Structure formats: structure tokens, C-alpha cells
Amino acid sequence: QPAFKLKVDGIDSLLASMRRFRQASGKTPHLAKADIAAAYRRVPIAPEHRWAAAVTFMLDGVPQIAEHIMLPFGAISSVYGWDRVGNMLTHLARVILKIAVLRYVDDYFWAEHAETIAHAKDCFATVVRALLGEAAIAAHKLEHGLSLTILGLDMEATDTGVNCRPSQAKRVKWLKLIHKALDEQSLHCGEAA
Questions:
Q1: What is the pLDDT of residue 4?
Q2: What is the pTM of this model?
């Protein structure tokens, strides 16, 4: 039974962070993001708990059993297991690296000075890779700049504020869902969300 409540940061948290950055420094914040690859598969299951993550199947009429050694996708316990690891990475970034990292599940993002954003991003990636493996953050999932797509939102920091709009991929996806719902005269709960 989960003993704690999950907490994630969203776009509102990032906008508030950008606002605080602007007020404190008087500068336009640059953005950075990092996405952990296969996050659940990077967290091992304690050997004494692997029995609970076993699957059975028949192979040529013979029953077989296989135990997961890493958190399996789709299990509630995996969500909570990753959350602990994700919180640890956020804590290390904030306390040791002094980077104001925000986190939504396995996506990390933050606002930073133009002069230090690349270095901060590389430091964060170094810590994550040291703890979770060299392939934990793919190079193309580690970005920085004045404009980035974060959590499906194209964001551009300017001298006067932030321009935001859904990314092209999200717009295409949502238009398909809207047209399908109109054609079928039906909208399912998950699609509405």
C-alpha cells in the first residue's frame, strides 16, 4: 500500500520559477531539459522482493517462471519506486549542484542564466549518468536554449515574458482526436482528459 502521495512539478511551477529568476536577476531566463530514458528499467528490485514481480507462462506445454529484476512498467509499485529515485535526483541537483531543477515523472526542466545553462545541464547529466548508467540520458534528450518544448508545450522566453503554445506534435494529435470524436459523436473519458 502506498505510504506517501506523489508530487510532480508542471508548467505552472516552471513559469513561477522563470518569473522569480527574472525578478531576481533582471535577465531573460534560458531553459534546460533532460529526459531519463527507460526510467523504470533503471531501478532494481531488491532480490527478496522479486518473487512479487514474477510472471508465469507456458512454453511447449511446460510451465515457466521469469522474475523481473528491474521495476516493471505498469505496476503501481514501480510508479512509487521511480518517484523515490526521481526525488533523489531532484534533491541532488538542488542541494549539491545548486540547480533549481523541476521534475514531472522522468522529465527534468529548469530556468538558468545564459552563461551557465550548458554547464548546469552537463553537470546534471553527469550525476544522473553516474547513478543510473551512461545511457540514462540520451544526447538528443538533453537540451537548452531560449526556446524549448517542455511537457508538450513550445516555450520561448523573451525580454517581456514567455510565449507558450502546444507543440506541433500535440496539435496534430489533438486535432485527430477532435475529428474522430466529431465523426463518431462520442468522446471517451481518457480522450477528454
A1: 81
A2: 0.87
Q: Cα(130)–Cα(117) distance, rounded to whole angstroms?
A: 20
Paired strand residues for 102: 109
Strands (DSSP E) found in 89-171? 102-104, 107-112, 142-145, 147-150, 153-157, 162-166
List Cβ neighbours of 147 (8 Å cut-off, separation of 6 or more).
31, 154, 155, 156, 157
Q: Are strands 147-150 and 153-157 parallel, antiparallel or unpaired?
A: antiparallel
CB atoms within 10 A of CB 149: 16
* pLDDT at site 188: 85
**Grid cell at residue 127:** 550525476
Answer yes or no: are the C-beta atoms of 77 and 71 closer than 8 Å. Answer: yes
Q: Are 92 and 129 in contact (CB under 8 A)?
A: no
Show contacts of 163-170: CB within 8 Å, 24+ apart: 164/11
The predicted structure's pLDDT at residue 73: 86
**Contact between 127 and 89 (Cβ < 8 Å):** yes
Q: Which of 8, 7, 28 is nearest to 155 (CA)?
A: 28
Radius of gyration of the chain (CA): 20
Length of the chain: 193
Query: Could you report the average pLDDT of every consecutive run of 10 residues in the chain (193 residues)?
Result: 84 96 95 96 93 91 93 88 95 97 97 96 97 94 96 94 93 92 89 78
Helix, strand or coil, per DSSP, at residue 38: coil
